[in-house]
Amino acid sequence: MNFLRSCLHALWMLVTVVPYAIAILVCAPFASPVRLYGIAQAWLRQVMVGLRVICGVQWQVHGYDNLPQGATSPAVLLVKHQSTLETFLMPVLMPHPLAFVFKKELLYIPFFGWAIGRLDMVHIDRNRRAQAFNKVVEQGRRLLAQGVWVIMFPEGTRIPRGQAGSYKSGGTRLAVATGAPVIPVAVASAQCWPRKAFVKHPGTVHVSIGKPIPSAGRTADELMREVQSWIEGEMRRLDPAAYAHAGAGEPAQV
Known about the structure:
Layout: H1 2-27, H2 33-55, E1 57-62, E2 76-79, H3 85-93, E3 98-103, H4 112-116, E4 122-124, H5 129-145, E5 149-152, H6 170-178, E6 182-188, E7 203-209, H7 220-238
Parallel strand pairs: 1-7, 2-5, 2-6, 3-4, 3-5
Antiparallel strand pairs: 6-7
Helix pairs in contact: 1-2, 2-3, 5-6, 6-7
């Protein structure tokens, strides 16, 4: 039954992405970045509604009041990455437009990639790291000044449930360079939508938003250690069964 529901949800995403992507492509020469983002956000809402109705996946958010207030209050969101779900869910939840930092290869995906290429986001060549980071800082500074929040997955790729990846300091380096606070976000999504899996399982995905961590006067590595400690500790609280293999106080598997 879960396989059939997952097939229906995949079909729902395929059917709905085409008209929304075409709308973005057609409107791109005339519409503002905010308007184009709104079209993309509307499609993501359709994806998440479909996930809830078809697959029985719910979500519950903790710490929403920790988000910065104000139309132009900057923030760099550093999010735990277990599955595709948080990529779709974060723009639906957040009160500010988000700019993802993503690898340029995604631009070649039909319709989806064509559309995100028209959005005001940061696509980078990961083979050219120095140039990539300069681009992240340059575009990130401009976006943050406009009230757009930059979102990054510090582990760089989706990590199996109950494990921790290698946290990269790119997000905290951006925060230090721009003076923006870091918002750590823990997302226990793999129980419902496992890493690189097609089949989704009914259940509740818990999202926990941490308090803003100031970047002023901090080093990027020091800041990232604090972010990692908070996220991984919070993941144990949200999904204790996934960490039952580790004793109290032991780090998650890497």
